[in-house]
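Morning F.,

Quick status update on the modeling queue. The single chain you submitted on Monday has been processed. Sequence for confirmation:
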Amino acid sequence: MKKKLAIFLCTIALVFSVAGNVWATPCDYGGIFDCSISGSLSLSSDCRDGGDKNDAVLDFNDGNYFGFNDWEYLSKINLGGNLEGLVDIDLAVTPTSTTGTLTGTFYFNPNTWLLYDNIAIVLKGGSQIISGVKWSAYLLNTGVYEGCWDYDDGSKDLSHLSVYGTPGTPVPEPATLLLLGSGLIGLAGIGRKKFFKKA
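Structure tokens below.
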């Protein structure tokens, strides 16, 4: 009986581990990697190809991308260099080819990681007529804020890079903790004073 239970539990654990890594494979069209190690996917912990329309925060949340449904749209940069978006993230995109933008580098403010637990970058293909709309989302390893991309979906170039994040848990500032602590000590002192007055 114990042996059957152990086998059953191992099977369940295996199923969950496989389910948790459904997207942990390189995307069809390329990758995001450390610039110093060409071809390495070390900067991306997970990857998922998109659908037949432009990337959008609704796609991310409806599809539970990378296991989360609280994604926020942070920023988008067209490869012409025009930064758009609600959050000031400097992507400093540098295409490395004058005939296309299928390879290049990215950078954004490292302090972004103080606000978001997870950050994903989308590479959106530039040609919709020849090969249809294609894009791939890459979940960055925690703390990564710069790297290179290499992307080829059969298009002549990329249309844009988008950035998404899941909000982090707010960490109380030291001053807030100090204020709260002193308030609690004050309340304890008042209660003690009243207790000794009654006695």
